[in-house]
Q: What sequence folds into this?
């Protein structure tokens, strides 16, 4: 599915929220900064929706920006009936301390009409590291 917002209608059918647990450093061959979070989505629309995938925009100190598209929503394609809630947790890896993150979800509704959500922008305070 093409997730270009110019080709998919943007539909604000989900009330989305994020809780960030924090940023941790994973020791691997080199340090990796991990933004740990939990997402919550409420279908506030009149139709059921199936979430088919997500699109991330991730920025880190130094100016590097990555766009990541993924089929599925954390290994699922959840169906949310009107009033239903879906929540999931995860993390995103960064080579440098993260400075911004946002995610959009794309899917179809009960009439098989494709859509993409407006971006859920992570609050700036999520990226304030204790050593800065």
A:
């Amino acid at each position: 599915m093409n997730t270009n917002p110019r080709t998919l209608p943007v539909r604000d059918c989900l009330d989305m929220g994020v809780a960030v647990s924090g940023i941790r450093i994973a020791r691997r061959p080199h340090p990796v900064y991990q933004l740990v979070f939990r997402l919550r989505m409420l279908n506030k629309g009149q139709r059921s929706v199936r979430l088919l995938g997500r699109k991330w925009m991730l920025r880190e100190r130094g100016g590097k920006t990555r766009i990541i598209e993924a089929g599925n929503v954390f290994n699922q394609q959840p169906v949310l009936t009107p009033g239903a809630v879906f929540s999931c947790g995860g993390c995103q890896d960064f080579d440098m301390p993260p400075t911004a993150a946002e995610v959009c979800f794309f899917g179809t509704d009960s009439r098989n009409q494709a859509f993409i959500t407006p971006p859920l922008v992570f609050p700036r305070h999520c990226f304030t590291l204790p050593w800065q």
